[in-house]
Amino acid sequence: MTTNPLPSDKALVPFVSVDHMMQLIHHIGIEPMLCGLADYIEADFKRWQLFDKTPRVASHSAEGVIELMPTSDGEVYGFKYVNGHPKNTAEGLQTVTAFGLLANVGNGYPVLLSEMTLLTALRTAATSALVARTLAPQNARTMAMIGNGAQSEFQSLAMKAICGVREIRLYDTDPKATQKCATNLAGLGLSVTPCTSAQEAILGAQIITTCTADKQYATILSDNMIGAGVHINAIGGDCPGKTELAAAILHRADIFVEYPEQTRIEGEIQQLDPAHPVTEIWQVLTGQAKGRTSDKQITLFDSVGFAIEDFSALRYVRDQLETTRLFHPLDLLADPDDPRDLFGMLQRAI
Ligand SMILES: NC(=O)c1ccc[n+]([C@@H]2O[C@H](COP(=O)([O-])OP(=O)(O)OC[C@H]3O[C@@H](n4cnc5c(N)ncnc54)[C@H](O)[C@@H]3O)[C@@H](O)[C@H]2O)c1
């Protein structure tokens, strides 16, 4: 029997497994990592015009959606594969799973393959908090967290680390989810109050995060629940036919989005006329558009998650690899001695 030669360096791509990602998060610390991710996302939002942008490519089914999210800054290309299946948790599976890749635009070779289920939770939370730091009332110390599933602890800790939130008021239709979230957040420097209704959860909150999963139009927040001056961070309405807010709230709020071409398809604003004015968050971050202009204003971040946030998160992970070595070299790319003799490489492997 012949022994195949070991793959060459050109064949190997750094692969960050779930285990390595967990080690990386613990090595850096979750709050410093959320802050680091927010910095990378902010830096990329500030060079927004450089990027290739397209609404994500979605494949819908009765049960959920599978999406591809590509972008490039001209030097590096990235994409994420992500699903959303609200029924999954009842079957012991997660609603959202993901993985992603970065590649060198110059030769098309992948330079990183990474798990992105944890990374998506981190980048979504970092984006939410980056936007809340820009739009929420300055003295915001209390957040209502409606929907206490997989994303909820990450959202809570990002709002603590990046916006100075100190109290989280939890509500979920499933009390077991609220209990899980309260237990996970214990001892992490937040005062946590479980509530028995969304109405109770929003009492005294300056920031309201909705992060529920349902494959239909839902009304998590109705118009009469929303007072002047709050910031709403709406995460869960992120697919055609899947929204969380009563349309009347949208008419009272100033609405901020990532990429309007995608948000008009997937976000809360799918309920509005396509010409309804919205502000792109990158323009606020670069000082080209105004954010919060009064204490009475209701600001709404109609978040659906955009490819550039995943690109930033992958870039952040790539930049940690050299010092942490938390990756496996994956034999991903065929590397024949003669680049045109792929078949010969195969034959010699018998
Ligand atoms: N905007 C983004 O960038 C982004 C990123 C990741 C996930 N998401 C979306 O966020 C949502 C939550 O994701 P997850 O991974 O936490 O899902 P999850 O299934 O783990 O948790 C969702 C929770 O919402 C609760 N819920 C459902 N209906 C409710 C209601 N009417 N009131 C209160 N609670 C309710 C469920 O009981 C569950 O605990 C999903 O819709 C997902 O698609 C958005």
Please provide a written account of the structure.
The protein is built from eleven helices and 15 strands. The strands form two sheets. An eight-stranded parallel sheet has the order 9-8-7-10-11-14-12-13. A hairpin with a 3-residue loop joins strand 3 and strand 4. The N and C termini lie close together (8 Å). The protein has two domains: 151 residues, ornithine cyclodeaminase, domain 1; 182 residues, NAD(P)-binding Rossmann-like Domain (Rossmann fold). The chain is an alpha/beta fold and 350 residues long. It is globular. The chain binds nicotinamide-adenine-dinucleotide (NAD). The site of nicotinamide-adenine-dinucleotide has 28 residues, from helix 3. Nicotinamide-adenine-dinucleotide binds next to helix 3. Its EC number is 4.3.1.12. Pfam families: OCD_Mu_crystall. InterPro entries: NAD(P)-bd_dom_sf, ODC_Mu_crystall, ODC_N.
Short description:
The chain is α/β, with parallel strands linked by helices and 350 residues long.
Alpha carbon gyration radius: 21 Å
What structural class do helix, strand and pairing data support? Answer: alpha/beta
Bound molecules: nicotinamide-adenine-dinucleotide
Write down how many β-strands occur, each being a DSSP E stretch of 2 or more residues.
15
